[in-house]
Amino acid sequence: MAPRGYATARQVRLGTELRRLREAAGLKAREVAGMLNSTSAQISQVELGFAGASEERVRRLAAHYACTDEALIDALVAMATDRTRGWWEEYRGVLPPVFMDTAEVEHHASYLREIVITRIPGLLQTPDYARAVYAYMNPELPEKEVAPRVEHRMRRRAVIEGDNPTPYEAIIHEVALRLRVSDRESSRAQLRQILDLVEQGQAAVRVIPTDQDGFAGSGASMMYAGGPVPRLDTGMRDSPTGVAFIDAESQLPRLRELFRRVESASLDAMASRDFIHRLAKEL
Question: Which residue of 43, 110, 154, 281 is 20 to 30 Å from 61, comparing CA positions?
């Protein structure tokens, strides 16, 4: 099979997990290639996400690696055999790859948790809010490049809408709710949209007030996507070069604990809803 022209986040993650299993077993790529009548180059292509792997091959690799975690093996098989071509692929070649990767991770998540300090979460943004953010952060972008970014962000909301929505929790700092990225009316509409999504059961939102004592998490912003098994969870955090995907077993527990700490500093769901209502009336 010819190598793919590009590897999606999901394909890269499958290859990464297979490499981790191989390394845990103490095997070199050339040794595995000999077991499978393959080549080191082919094994490397699979581990980089640039070549596919059948269900049979994934199970054979797991057996050679002495992996006995059946839930993990089944999850890896599902990743290997999934042929989903999501709506986000329409934007490949139009937007940077990280846009597709983010939407793909969200689509396959079993649940989503998010912490935001200075900006409304993308999944909750109105078109006016998203447009203002993109235009401010990238003032050199022409309208023909801003428009697909805004459209893509709006379409991401599909994961929390529809007949089978993904459970979504967001913790938002009061600063993000008060900042006017555009004008007063746009800010009011943004708060109303958050309330609508909460009341429709599409999002669970909690607020951290600015007068909350003991909150030192100004750099805590992140998205956490639950996988089919905890080992396949994914963290996403903004970095100077874009979104950084975090999937190391040593780091995931730290992100889960970070969410718990931030959550403990937030108001409960009912108080948070009332808080947003009051802010909307103040505008």
Answer: 110
